[in-house]
Amino acid sequence: MTDVRSAVAIGEQLVQFLGPEYVSYRKGEGNRQFAYVEGQEAINLANTIFGWDGWKSEPKSFVTDYAEASNGGKWNVGLACTVRVTVLVKENGKVVREVYREDVGYGTVDNTPGRGKAMEKCRKEAVTDGLKRALRQFGNATGNCIYNKEYLDRVRKVKGPAERIGFVDDELFRKPMNKRRRMVLKQESAQVIRLKPGDDIVEDVDEFGMFDDNDDVWNMMPPPICETDELITV
User: Fold this and answer.
1) pLDDT of 162 higher than 80
2) Number of H helices, E strands in the chain
3) SS3 of 48, please?
4) Check: CATH 2.40.50.100 for 7-164?
5) Each residue of 53-100: pLDDT tens digit?
6) Rounded to whole angstroms, how far apart are CA atoms 190 and 178?
7) Contact 155/25 with Cβ under 8 angstroms?
8) Where exactly are the structural domains of the chain?
């Protein structure tokens, strides 16, 4: 069950300034650097602060300013999109009210082959821009601090993490494997031991844990051959 966060706890996070790992930079007009929050970072921030089921976004309208094709069949498109972001305020697990913000995002593409492709890219850019602009209205932690010049001057001096994302290989969300595939992987990684005359077979513990009679993979494996000097894989 999803934890229900109070409006007070959410408010305390929204006033916080973002760490340097959330801020990206790009070159703009006059070779100046512009700070911004990437679209996927903005979504992750909203999921972290409001909860994955505590907010929603919706494109409300699109307005195409221009869509022109050149003689070579390439398209130049510019359009605006109004996006609404709604935060669900909950009490005792039930939504008691909704708070929303809206803003306009803009997208442009130049020299793109095909009208359909040009419109697709332009709409995606406009929606993402509108989403970020609407989210920032909720507070510093959802991107509003990016518009604070003093903050930008200071955050550049703050040392960020070496990696912008962090994960443990063994904790990645992976595709499920069938039992036969798991058995093969376990066999490949298991330790190989040589039995000597008079030795007893002892269950071995490898990185996957101890095999026992309750292990469905162990039950699928053929019984080991226990002849002298045979190599047994456990």
Assistant:
1) no
2) 6, 9
3) helix
4) no
5) 999 999 999 999 999 998 788 999 999 999 999 999 888 888 888 999
6) 18
7) no
8) 7-164, 174-233
Burial of 61 by CB count in 10 Å (0-12 exposed, 13-18 middle, 19+ buried)?
exposed
In the chain, the amino acid numbered 4 is: V
Instruction: Report the distance separating Cα 31 and Cα 35, nearest Å.
Output: 13
- Answer positive or negative: Cα dihedral of 14, 15, 21, 26: positive
- pLDDT at position 90 is 84
- CA distances 46 to 95, 126, 146, Å, are 17, 19, 16
Which two tokens mark 205?
Answer: 């513990």
Secondary structure class of 186 (helix, strand, coil)? helix
Confidence of residue 24 (pLDDT cuts 50, 70, 90): very high
Q: Residue 134: phi, psi to the nearest 5?
A: -70, -40
In single-letter form, the type of residue at position 52 comes to: W
